[in-house]
Each structure stands twice: as C-alpha cells, then as structure tokens.
Specification:
The structure is a single chain. The chain is of the alpha+beta class. About 30% of the residues lie in helices and about 25% in strands. Strands 1, 2, 3, 4, 5, 6, 7 and 8 form an eight-stranded mixed sheet that branches. Strand 1 and strand 2 form a beta hairpin. Helix 1 runs antiparallel to helix 2. The termini are far apart.
Length: about 200
Amino acid sequence: MSELHGRARAELAAWNAPDPDQDRLRRSYLEHLDRHPDACSRTCAAGHLTASAAVVDPGGTRVVLTLHRKIGKWLQTGGHCEDGDASLGGAALREAAEESGLAGLRLLPGPVRLDRHRVGCCGGTWHLDVQYAVVAADPAAALSIDAAESADLGWFAVEDLPEPSDEACRLLVGAAARAARRVSEREPAPLPRPFGR
C-alpha cells in the first residue's frame, strides 16, 4: 500500500478544495497520512482513507445509488482500498464498477469532496472518505446488484434522491453532477456519421 499512500498524499496535496471547510478537512487528511504509513489500509485503527464515487449520467441529471445492506440508507458506491489499487481514484472506480455492474465507467479527474465519518468497521474507527465523480457511458445499461453489499440499486434524478439517505451523499451527488455537466459542456458534440455508413 506504500505506492497508494504516496499517490494519495500527492493527490490531496495538489487538490484545490472548493471551500474553507473542505480545505481544513484536506489538511487533516494530509496530517493523518503523515502520521500513519498504513492510513490507506483498513488495519489502521486510528482511521483509514476510503474511496467512493457518485456514478452519474453524462448530463449530470441522474445518479446510481445503492441501498446499503448494513447501514440501511441509499448511498454512493465505494469502500475500502484493496492491495491492487494504485490510486484512490482507481479504488473508487473499481468499487463503482463492482457495486453497480456497469461497464464503460469513466473517472473524472481529482476528488470532488471529502467526508470524514465514524464507522463500526474494523473495531470502530473513522473513514476519511475521498469522493469522486464517475460518468456512466451508457446510463441505459442494466444495473447488477452485489447482494453482499446492497439490498437494492437504482438510477435516481439528482434533484429527487430517495430516502433514507444522508447529507454527505446529497452533497457528493450535487458536486458530481456539477463536475459531469462541466465536462459535458467542454467536450465537443460527436460528429454526425456520413450518410450511407
């Protein structure tokens, strides 16, 4: 996990937080990484970095949420870093694909938010969640529930999320939707196919 640790630290050091509260959280994550060489591993009892993602459609109007089996809330995809993860963004993308069953997912560059919350895993500790936006290439593709993690799974309008959820999820969905819309506005529309092809 040392490569992941170094990349996580570099990404968070370079990240321009959207507001002063998020920047304070960013600095606290960096301090945690500096104090704990195992900060990206679930074995770090003082708390560990996790990676999650809001999976949105290209227009940023719909999002995939999972009804978390243990927590009982509609949340974004995400979880612990694994040994094969080279980056936090890679971990978020892997979790998004595993938990949604969608192929062709695209990770947008850099985190969109951070969220620190208490959890009961690993004997009771903190998740220092680094949150990303992931765009689904084909939002019409069928979702596939990971029954070990999720009681349900679905697409929802960004402006009308299901309950119960939580504020951290709602903030992430809003940030991810805005990120997807910014990318969509910058990308040129596909050229029409020539007639007869």
